[in-house]
């Protein structure tokens, strides 16, 4: 099996070489820039039917080593899968309702890894979501500040507005909305590590009188319409398809009539929510986001509408997230030794693949990201939005 496989791999003319367990090298293409280090002989036979899940899992488990630029590693791995097994149609996922304990455990697994680790490669405010590039030339800090401003402008925040921040993370948006727009912010998260640092940053910024952050599940939110505006950023990916109706009703009931709801999150390419990318979704589900499920824009739009909210604006930020992830990946790659002192080697391997792989996936349109702005109409159908979007770009 080894000789025919090597012949097939050479026919691909990829800039890659293998270093086998006995120290020998097999050059597969011209001017190799990536080396796959095969530590487990059993892996050779599996390479005849590769997937990104197989290659990624093998790297995490130490069966496979990777040398070379991580973004180029991802590109070559995808080319290898496409050449040897063809296009990937994927399968529709099963839908199971998430309970509070399951969601709390999943959030803790992902976000409680290490605040210092995230600080290595995120921006100064530790905004862990898609940035917004007004020209494409911004650095990460500039683009994240622009994203926070873009969200607040879309919500038409005014001094004294009561803003609910669902999935507040390290509090970057909550503090920005309070400091720059004068909002009164109530934010929730399920991550204890995030909450501790976020609360400290609120105090350090002198915003304790305007920003309240709590450890709370979205299903525990008050349902009395007490908030003027609601924003949910990078959170509904954790809700699960089966719970989307409940999630949308919860946001509807939290906001007052005439108020606005912004949902910013990753969406699937296929309408049934099935993943794409030769097992990339399986890898992410196993190692990165347990129980995460991505709905298509049509699915989440239907649920928002069925809950009683009127969708008034939709914007795709797919290219923006590809660029954000490239910057995150580059910052992590430049600080690998520091990262190794903060997290286990297995976790670091997961994150190297995850950030670079998602940058590639967004760039290839495997997944998207949409900001969906909705309003809760009054009984007479009225609301407070202006006639045009001109104010957003003034």
Automatic annotation (TrEMBL):
The active site is at residue 358. GO terms for molecular function: methyltransferase activity. Residues 13-77 form the DUF7884 domain. One of its GO terms (biological process) is lipid biosynthetic process. SUPFAM superfamilies: S-adenosyl-L-methionine-dependent methyltransferases. It holds the Pfam family DUF7884. CDD domains: AdoMet_MTases. Keywords: Lipid metabolism, Methyltransferase, S-adenosyl-L-methionine, Transferase. InterPro entries: CFA/CMAS (IPR050723), CfaB-like (IPR048027), CMAS (IPR003333), DUF7884 (IPR057206), SAM-dependent_MTases_sf (IPR029063). Belongs to the CFA/CMAS family. NCBIfam families: cyclopro_CfaB. This is Cyclopropane-fatty-acyl-phospholipid synthase. It comes from Pseudomonas kuykendallii. The lineage of its organism: Bacteria, Pseudomonadati, Pseudomonadota, Gammaproteobacteria, Pseudomonadales.
């Amino acid at each position: 099996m080894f000789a025919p496989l090597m012949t097939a791999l050479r026919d691909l003319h990829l800039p890659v070489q293998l270093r086998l367990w006995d120290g020998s090298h097999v050059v597969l293409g011209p001017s190799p820039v990536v080396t796959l280090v095969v530590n487990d002989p059993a892996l050779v036979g599996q390479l005849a039917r590769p997937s990104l899940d197989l290659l990624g899992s093998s790297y995490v488990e130490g069966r496979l080593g990777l040398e070379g630029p991580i973004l180029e590693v991802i590109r070559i791995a995808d080319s290898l899968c496409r050449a040897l097994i063809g296009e990937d149609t994927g399968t529709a996922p099963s839908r199971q309702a998430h309970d509070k304990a399951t969601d709390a455990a999943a959030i803790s697994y992902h976000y409680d890894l290490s605040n210092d680790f995230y600080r290595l490669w995120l921006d100064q405010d530790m905004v862990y979501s898609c940035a917004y590039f007004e020209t494409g030339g911004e650095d990460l800090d500039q683009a994240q500040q622009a994203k926070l401003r873009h969200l607040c402008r879309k919500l038409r925040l005014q001094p004294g507005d009561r803003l609910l921040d669902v999935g507040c993370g390290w509090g970057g948006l909550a503090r920005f909305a309070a400091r720059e727009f004068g909002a009164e912010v109530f934010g929730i998260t399920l991550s204890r590590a995030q909450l501790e640092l976020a609360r400290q940053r609120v105090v350090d910024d002198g915003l304790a009188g305007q920003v309240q952050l709590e450890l709370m599940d979205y299903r525990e939110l008050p349902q009395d319409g007490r908030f003027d505006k609601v924003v949910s950023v990078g959170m509904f990916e954790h809700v699960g398809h089966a719970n989307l109706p409940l999630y949308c009703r919860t946001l509807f009931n939290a906001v007052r009539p005439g108020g606005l709801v912004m949902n910013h999150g990753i969406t699937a390419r296929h309408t049934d929510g099935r993943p794409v990318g030769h097992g990339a979704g399986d890898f992410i589900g196993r190692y990165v986001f347990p129980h995460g499920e991505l709905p298509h824009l049509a699915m989440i739009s239907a649920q928002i509408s069925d809950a009683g909210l009127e969708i008034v604006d939709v914007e795709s930020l797919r290219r923006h997230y590809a660029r954000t992830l490239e910057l995150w990946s580059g910052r992590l790659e430049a600080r690998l030794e520091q990262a190794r002192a903060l997290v286990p080697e297995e976790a670091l391997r997961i994150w190297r693949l995850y950030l670079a792989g998602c940058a590639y996936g967004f760039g290839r349109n495997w997944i998207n990201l949409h900001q969906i702005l909705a309003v809760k109409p009054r009984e007479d159908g009225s609301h407070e939005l202006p006639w045009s979007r001109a104010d957003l770009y003034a």
